[in-house]
Structure formats: C-alpha cells, structure tokens
Amino acid sequence: MSVSLAKQITQLSAANKPTVFVIALNSQRLLQRCQTEFEQAPYKALPKTPVIYVLPEATHNRSGATVCLPEGKKQLRIEPHLGVVFGQDTSRVSVENALYTVAGYVPVALYSLPNDSYYRPDIEGRCQDGFCVLGQTVMKSAVANPAEVMVNIALNGAIKKSYVHLDMKHSVAELISFLSQFIAFKAGDILLTGTEDMPLLASAGDEVSVDFVQIGSVSNTIAE
C-alpha cells in the first residue's frame, strides 16, 4: 500500500522527520559534456566520488502544491530524481547488502534556479522553500530495476521529454554503500540519486507533471 511521504513528513515529530540527501553530478552525459570544463580551474578534475548535499526541511513540498519563483527570478529548472527511501537505520553497509536497506522508491521533482556552476554548493539556487516535491512511496518490489525507470516530463499537458531515468555514474547500491561509510542514515531518510543532463525550464503559470513509470507522478504549478 502506498504511503504519502508528504503526509509522513507532516505527521512525524520534529525529531523524526526524514532528512533528504541529494546526489549531484551522477549523470554520465553531464560529466562527458562538461569534462573539458571540469578539467580546468577551479575544478581541476572530474569528481572521483559521489557529490552530495542536504536539503533543509523548508524545501520539502508535495504534489499538487504551488512552487514559487523567488522574487526577481523568471525560470526554474525541473530536475526529476528517483528517491530511495531507507527502511532501516543504515551505516557501513557493503555494496552487496546495500539494497536490503531500501524500503521503497519515491518520485521526486526537484526545482532549482538555472546555474551552470558546480564548484560551490548552490545554496540560493537549490535550497529555496518548497523546491523539493516528494511524491508517494512504492514498495521496492514494484520496481524491477531502478536504473531502467522511464520518466516523462509534461508542461501544460504536453509531454516535452521522455527518457530512461538516468545513465548513472554510481548505481543506487554503490551510492548507499559509499555514503554509509560516513553518514548514518535513519529509517525514513530519502536519498535522491541524481538527475539527467540539460533539464527543462518552467516559468510562472506553467503546470508541470513528472511521471516515473511504475512508480508514480508529481504535479505542480509554478507561481510568482
């Protein structure tokens, strides 16, 4: 039975609210396209390990709600993420055992301000209120292969992009294992596993729908 993560977030006590972790630069296409740039200053090299940041609680949002443009901003990037929901406290797990810690998957639409720099964490661009839209969880057994989930993105009722979720540099199991060596995940925590290259842009008034086939969808209106 599906359980609304948005409902969970509002009902859990403050001490037990899930933390949302986000993986950046996990797209093989993005890394290939930007390889020359990343080999120059200030980066000096492609990232050798997963790049992670944490979203503040205020960014959490739900399907059907409004996503607001910050004052003076005209567009938002639409960044679909396959979210991994931990079913148990997880620390120092091997790659072989990593998926045993997963309870399910959740469709996520993460919004951000357009910014092509990856050198410093883009706090202004990614940590605005309501930018992380969480859908409903599905049991892990409902997803045969998380690396082969089809994603359809629609703007104002018309599908603008369809693709297989992500050609990931690091698999879900690899991400969990690597990060669990220094992060103690709690049951209910969510790990966003990366988004695709060249995301679509949405403007004020746009109706955005992101559908993860076999998992579910999230829809939102962009407002000033």
From TrEMBL:
Domain Fumarylacetoacetase-like C-terminal, first and last residues per copy: 19-222
Keyword rRNA-binding: no
Domain of life: Bacteria
Coiled coil: none
Keyword hit for S-adenosyl-L-methionine: no
Residue spans crossing the bilayer: none
Record's keyword terms, sorted: Metal-binding
NCBIfam families xrefs: HpaG-N-term
Protein name: Fumarylacetoacetase-like C-terminal domain-containing protein
Source species of the chain: Pasteurella canis
